[in-house]
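Fill in residues.
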C-alpha cells in the first residue's frame, strides 16, 4: 500500500468559538481572593519545554489484529489516529526480530530477512498495516523500535536473551537502514529509530522478544546506525537508550553518550518509568538531559495499579486507574520536563476474568482490549478503558509544538498543566479528590483570555463537553468534578507577559531567599526589598542586587541579564526552582534552617530543603 506522510499538521484543536470577548483592565498580579475562595494557582510566565508528541506503540497486538476483519482494523485505526479518536501524534512501530524461541506467539514479531540475506517485505502484515494507517492519518512522529536483532546475529541464536554479536553490529545497522529505506519507498518515512529497548533487562525467560545491551556496546550500536543512516542521506533520528528505570537512565546514559563521536547521532533521549520514580528522581532525568544538551522523552509505561503508580498486576478499566495514568503524564511533563509521552501498547487482550470490571487476573497494559480467545469464539468486540479517554484529554489537545508552562500553587489533590499554542492556552486538570474542588488559575500572560471549550472524562463521562469556566481579569475560576480529568481551551489576544513578584520561602526552614554578588542564603522573612524577587517570561529571577545566576564557584547576583541558561530558572509545580543550564535545584545546603545558611545548586532530590513557596 502506497501512502503519503504529510509533514504539516491540521489546526491545533477542535473547533473553537469565534470571537474573543474579554474586555477590562489587565492585572499584573492576581486579583485578591474572595472570602472562602482558594488563592489562585499561577501559570508561570516563562516557557518550559516544547512538546514533540504524545503516542502509543503497536507492539504485540498488531499480530493478533491482522486476523480481525478489515472493518475492525479500520475502526481501530480511527480510534487511535483520527481527530474523532485519540489523534495520536506519534506511533511506535515494532521492527521484529523474527521471534526465534519466543514462547508467546503474539510477541514473536516477524523480521524481513530470508536465510540467503534477501528480503521478504510481505511479512509482518499486522505491523505494516497499522504503520501505514498511522502514516495515512498524518501522525507526526513515526518511530521504529527494536526489541531484538534478528537471531542470526545474537550470541544465543534466539530473539530473546542473547546479546548482539560485536562482529555483526554493522550488519544490524545495515538491516535497520534497509527497513527504513523500504518503508520510505512506500511513502512511509520513519522519523526516528530506537535500536534497542530496555537494554538493562535480560529477557532470558523468552516470554517476549528482547535483547540485553551492555552499557559499553550502546554507543557502538548508535554510531554504527547513525553512520549508516547518514551515508544513505537519511534524516531519520536515533533515540536511546530506553532504560526500563530512570535510575539506570541517569547513571548509565552519561557513560555511553560521552564516548567520542556518539552524541551527534542522538536526536532524543528516551527513558521508561517502571521504577515508579518520585519527583526527585524525575528531576534527575531533567538534570541528565541538560548535562548532555538533549531533550528527553518518556517512551514507555504501563501495568501500574491497586491505587499506586508502581508495578502491580491488576486490570482496572475505571477512572481510578485512568487518573493514575494522568498523574504519570503530568509528572513526566512537569517534573522531568519530557518533551514526549508514549504509552506502551495501545491494545491488549489481557483483561482477566471480565473486561468490564476490575480484577486481579488481568493487566493494565492496554487502552482498548479485545478477546484473547477471538480465534476460537469469533468475538472481535472492542472493550474500552477510561485510560483511553484520559490519554485523549492530553493527546487531542496538547499538539506538537505546544509549549509547557508549569503551574504553582494548585489545590491539594489537583494537578494542573498548561500549554501555549497558536494563540490558545490548553489547560489539563486532574482532580484526584472524591469531592468537587474549587480551582482559580491566574494566567501571567498580560493579555485577555476567553474560555472556548471544556471537555471532561470522569466515572460517568467520556470526553463530555461541559460548562466552560468563568474567566475574569486573567483568572479562570471553576469547580472541578470529583475524580475527573478536564481539558480547558482558552483563546487569548496578544502575546504579552507579566512578572510574578514576591519572596521565596523555603518549605523546610521557613526562611526566605536572599542573595547578592557574594552568594545566596536564607534568612528570617522580613518583607524587605532584599527578599523581594520578580520572575518574568525570560525565566529571570531578579532581586534588589541583580539577577540570580549560577556559575563558578556558586550562586550570585549580577547586574545584567544576558539570557544565558545560567540565568534562567524553571519554577516546578512541586516547589523546585531549577537552573536551566545544569538542571539542578536551589537547595539549602545540609538541610540547615538557621539564618545565613548557604543556598546552593544541587541535584534535585525532592527534599523539602529544595521546595520553595512564593509569598
Amino acid at each position: 500500500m502506497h501512502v503519503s506522510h504529510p509533514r504539516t499538521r491540521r489546526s491545533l484543536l477542535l473547533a473553537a468559538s469565534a470571537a474573543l470577548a474579554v474586555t477590562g483592565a489587565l492585572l499584573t498580579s492576581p486579583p485578591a481572593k474572595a472570602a472562602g475562595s482558594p488563592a489562585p494557582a499561577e501559570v508561570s510566565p516563562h516557557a518550559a519545554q516544547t512538546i514533540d508528541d504524545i503516542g502509543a506503540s503497536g507492539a504485540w497486538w498488531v499480530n493478533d489484529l491482522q486476523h480481525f476483519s478489515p472493518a475492525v482494523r479500520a475502526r481501530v485505526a480511527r480510534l487511535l489516529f483520527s481527530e474523532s479518536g485519540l489523534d495520536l501524534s506519534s506511533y511506535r512501530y515494532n521492527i521484529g526480530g523474527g521471534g526465534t524461541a519466543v514462547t508467546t506467539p503474539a510477541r514473536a514479531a516477524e523480521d524481513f530477512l530470508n536465510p540467503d540475506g534477501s528480503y521478504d517485505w510481505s511479512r509482518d502484515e499486522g505491523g505494516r498495516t497499522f504503520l501505514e494507517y498511522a502514516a495515512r492519518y498524518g501522525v507526526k512522529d513515526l518511530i521504529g523500535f527494536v526489541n531484538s536483532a534478528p537471531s542470526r546475529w545474537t550470541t544465543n541464536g534466539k530473539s530473546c536473551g542473547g546479546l548482539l554479536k560485536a562482529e555483526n553490529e554493522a550488519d544490524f545497522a545495515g538491516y535497520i537502514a534497509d527497513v527504513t529505506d523500504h518503508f520510505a519507498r512506500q511513502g512511509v518515512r520513519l522519523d526516528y529509530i530506537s535500536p534497542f529497548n530496555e537494554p538493562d533487562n535480560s529477557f532470558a525467560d523468552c516470554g517476549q522478544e528482547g535483547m540485553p545491551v551492555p552499557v559499553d556496546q550502546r554507543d557502538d550500536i548508535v554510531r554504527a546506525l547513525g553512520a549508516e543512516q547518514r551515508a544513505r542521506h537519511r534524516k531519520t533520528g536515533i533515540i536511546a537508550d530506553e532504560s526500563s528505570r530512570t535510575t539506570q537512565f541517569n547513571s548509565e546514559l552519561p557513560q555511553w553518550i560521552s564516548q567520542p563521536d556518539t552524541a551527534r547521532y542522538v536526536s532524543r533521549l528516551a527513558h521508561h518509568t517502571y521504577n515508579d520514580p518520585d519527583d526527585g528522581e524525575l528531576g534527575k532525568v531533567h538534570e541528565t538531559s541538560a548535562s548532555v544538551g538533549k531533550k528527553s522523552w518518556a517512551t514507555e509505561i504501563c501495568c501500574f495499579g491497586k491505587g499506586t503508580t508502581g508495578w502491580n498486576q491488576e486490570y482496572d478499566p475505571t477512572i481510578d486507574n485512568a487518573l493514575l495514568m494522568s498523574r504519570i503524564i503530568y509528572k513526566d511533563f512537569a517534573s522531568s520536563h519530557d518533551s514526549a509521552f508514549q504509552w506502551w501498547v495501545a491494545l491488549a487482550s489481557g483483561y482477566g476474568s471480565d473486561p468490564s470490571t476490575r480484577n486481579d487476573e488481568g493487566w493494565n497494559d492496554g487502552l482498548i482490549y479485545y478477546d484473547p480467545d477471538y480465534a476460537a469464539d469469533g468475538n472481535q468486540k472492542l472493550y474500552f478503558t477510561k485510560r483511553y479517554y484520559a490519554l485523549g484529554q492530553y493527546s487531542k489537545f496538547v499538539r506538537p509544538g505546544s509549549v509547557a508552562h508549569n503551574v504553582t500553587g494548585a489545590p491539594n489533590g489537583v494537578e494542573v498543566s498548561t500549554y501555549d499554542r497558536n494563540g490558545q492556552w490548553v489547560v489539563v486538570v486532574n482532580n484526584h479528590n472524591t469531592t468537587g474542588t474549587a480551582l482559580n488559575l491566574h494566567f501571567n500572560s498580560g493579555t485577555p483570555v476567553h474560555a472556548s471549550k471544556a471537555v471532561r472524562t470522569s466515572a460517568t463521562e467520556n470526553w463530555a463537553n461541559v460548562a466552560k469556566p468563568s474567566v475574569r481579569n486573567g483568572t479562570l475560576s471553576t469547580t472541578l468534578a470529583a475524580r475527573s480529568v478536564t481539558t480547558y481551551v482558552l483563546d487569548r489576544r496578544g502575546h504579552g507577559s507579566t512578572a510574578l513578584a514576591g519572596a521565596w520561602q523555603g518549605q523546610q526552614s521557613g526562611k526566605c531567599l536572599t542573595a547578592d554578588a557574594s552568594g545566596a542564603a536564607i534568612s528570617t522573612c522580613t518583607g524587605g526589598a532584599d527578599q523581594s524577587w520578580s520572575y518574568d517570561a525570560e525565566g529571570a529571577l531578579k532581586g534588589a542586587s541583580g539577577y540570580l545566576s549560577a556559575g563558578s564557584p556558586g550562586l550570585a547576583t549580577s547586574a545584567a541579564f544576558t539570557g544565558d541558561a545560567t540565568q534562567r530558572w524553571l519554577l516546578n509545580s512541586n516547589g523546585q526552582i531549577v537552573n536551566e543550564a545544569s538542571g539542578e535545584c536551589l537547595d539549602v545546603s545540609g538541610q540547615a534552617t538557621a539564618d545565613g545558611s548557604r543556598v546552593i545548586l544541587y541535584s534535585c532530590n525532592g527534599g523539602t530543603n529544595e521546595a520553595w513557596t512564593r509569598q
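The chain has three domains: 53-395, 407-492, 500-614.
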